[in-house]
Structure formats: structure tokens, C-alpha cells
Write a structure and sequence with these properties.
AraC-type arabinose-binding/dimerisation domain-containing protein, RmlC-like_jellyroll, 5-stranded antiparallel beta sheet, RmlC_Cupin_sf, Jelly Rolls, mainly beta, 12 strands
Length: 120
């Protein structure tokens, strides 16, 4: 598991041609990937994505809103713009309190039915 906060020195900010603003982080996942999954996820207020893990893929989250997440029994309240890298076996649970949360998830490589719910 790795957490990259938006204030991290691992984030390179720059202005591109034409004036656009960008923030880039190089993340080595140590995998050759032909296909990856891309998800746009919204969790409604007072809801949760139940604790689970994945056996095969590395999962990368990018938070579009502040978010509360539990990873391997450790709670984190993380700001918008945070990147989280989860490795196979990392247990995680995402929460929405009073407001909905929104994040992007990428799964490397994409493997169907790789989600294992831990509390059922």
C-alpha cells in the first residue's frame, strides 16, 4: 500500500503548451499490463464499499473528493487529489459520511471476479 498526498514531492506540477496545468506522478507497479480496468466510482452519503481485497491486480485510486478509507485495519481521512496504490491482498473499505464520495479506480491488469469480500 502506498499513499501519495497532493502535497507530496512525488507529484510534479507543470504548465503545458497552451497554458494547461498538470500534476503528474510516476508510479511503478512492476507489472507488464495488456489490459487494465478503469472505473468511475461514486458512493452515496452514509454508504460503504465493504471491506475486500484482490488476489491478482494492483488497484490505484485517485480521489475526486475528500475520502475516508480503511486499509489493512488503518483508517485514513484523505484530501481530494490523493493517490492510493493497493497491492494484491491489501484489505480496503471506502466510506461516505454526510456527503457522497467520488473517485477513479484503475486495476492492473484487469481480472474479472477478483474481488474477495472479507466480512461475509
Amino acid at each position: 500500500m502506498k499513499i501519495i498526498l497532493p502535497t507530496s514531492n512525488e507529484i510534479h506540477r507543470y504548465t503545458g503548451p497552451g497554458g494547461y496545468q498538470a500534476a503528474m506522478s510516476k508510479i511503478d507497479i512492476n507489472k507488464n499490463v495488456d489490459v487494465f480496468g478503469f472505473y468511475d466510482i461514486a458512493i452515496p452519503p452514509h454508504s460503504v464499499s465493504k471491506e475486500h481485497y484482490h488476489n491478482e491486480f494492483i488497484e490505484l485510486f485517485y480521489f475526486l473528493t475528500p475520502m475516508r478509507i480503511k486499509i489493512n485495519d488503518e483508517e485514513h481521512n484523505l484530501p481530494t487529489g490523493t493517490v492510493v496504490v493497493l497491492h494484491p491482498g491489501d484489505r480496503h473499505e471506502e466510506y461516505a459520511n454526510e456527503t457522497a464520495v467520488h473517485y477513479l479506480a484503475m486495476k492492473f491488469p484487469y481480472v474479472e471476479n477478483d474481488k474477495v469480500i472479507t466480512n461475509e
